[in-house]
Amino acid sequence: MLTRSHTGCWTCKRRRRRCDNGRPACQNCRERRVDCEGYEVRLKWGAGIASRGRFTGADKPIQDSVPPRQKGRQRDLGRKEKEKENRARDPGQYIETMMRFRVDLSTDGSQLEARRTEAENAIFDEFMNDGINTLHSTTARDSMLHPRLPQLCQESNALYPICIAFQLALSSTVTPQFCEYFDTALRTFRSELACSTTLSDATLTSGLLLCSIGLMHGLPWTMHLEGMHRILQSDGLDNANRPSPSFFRLHLLEVMGVMDLHCSAVGRQSPHIGIWRRYCQLATPRHGVEPVSGLPRTLLDIFAGIGIETTEQTFWDWPGEPGSFLQCYLWEAHRLAGILTLRRDKAHVPLPESMSAWRQPAKCPADTAVLVARILASIDALRLASNERPLEDTYIRNAIILPVFVAGLEIDVLCQKPEWQQMIRTSLRTSHQCEILLSLLEEIWQRADPSLSVHDLARQRGIEMGLL
């Protein structure tokens, strides 16, 4: 019969299980893959004269001043009833309270490393060697995150479990192990964010990786962008006299800006913020390629203007930038996808009627069917060239999701071209994220309703997808 442990770790004591007193973690905790709470002495401070016994917390040890203490089973049932009342009264506050108790933010880096298991370290190493490459659409040498990540994991309690959850998220199926680590990562990040008055690079990196997990699996993620932006604003992000941020900080802001772009999300649940135009367009050099999206910053400037000032002619007039043949194929597909996005988007600000006809920008002369054909032709050329030269721009095909998906939304064109549908299926069978996006397109093609909004369809399914 199992008995309560009096000499074991605090986790086994709480569960009333025998403990082998293993260090740094006992065998029970290792087998259950939970954090071992250790063996340190815990002090309990009383609020009054007595700190032990039935008079705990009393101002004076008088019999009548302290109600009789319930014992055993009756006391446990009382606690459960109180928890039910708290949940019914304010579910959100109850969840936040429980998260604060379950996450210990005072643990230093050495204690964290001691509590990490060999299995976790193996998954983290796999992320550092392979999984991190899926975050970029350029070569690995352009990564600013890889050399900094181990130190950032020491500065943020949430970052290490988020990296593990991200690596597990790359699987084609959602496993129970991923759900466990994602739940831990989400709770830890929310608690860390709630305690932050200034957003450190480590916490900001944690949030962006958490958003990346969400946009891959259709889990809510734009709310994290909104929360991080709110803290950055309170820390003086909008202050024109603030000190110039570091290059890595600018890189993180650019990643936020790309994730926040008008066309980066399907079924978006939080409003568009405009991070790229407000904080990146003027603060970073207007040349070169942004490594996560794989797009030139000058082209991202145009995408960031959708809904404000960008027109079809703006995309059509973009002169391009020097790059490899593979990059030119990718950039051409995105430029044409931007034109299709403008044609389908009814939310962009119309031009004033009083504007003279000669000042109004001309519409792109190409027909929609021609644009779709050119997008798919560019993607097919990119695929063939990548197969012929596998060592050139190894990760550039990470960036094809947006133009392929945008082309697939043109129902009138795709329903008449089954071979183009098949080409899109072939392009979007590379990950769990692509499979979800393809399922949205399949339903749109099947229903053949031009008025059907893909964003409404995604919200009906309860998913918030990303196109990165």
Automatic annotation (TrEMBL):
GO terms for cellular component: nucleus. Residues 54-92 are annotated as: Disordered. Residues 73-90 have a biased composition (Basic and acidic residues). It is found in: Nucleus. PROSITE patterns: ZN2_CY6_FUNGAL_1, ZN2_CY6_FUNGAL_2. GO terms for biological process: positive regulation of transcription by RNA polymerase II. Its main location: nucleus. Residues 8-36 form the Zn(2)-C6 fungal-type domain. One of its GO terms (molecular function) is DNA-binding transcription factor activity, RNA polymerase II-specific. Keywords: DNA-binding, Nucleus, Transcription, Transcription regulation. Pfam families: Fungal_trans_2, Zn_clus. SMART domains: GAL4. This is Zn(2)-C6 fungal-type domain-containing protein. It comes from Penicillium brevicompactum.
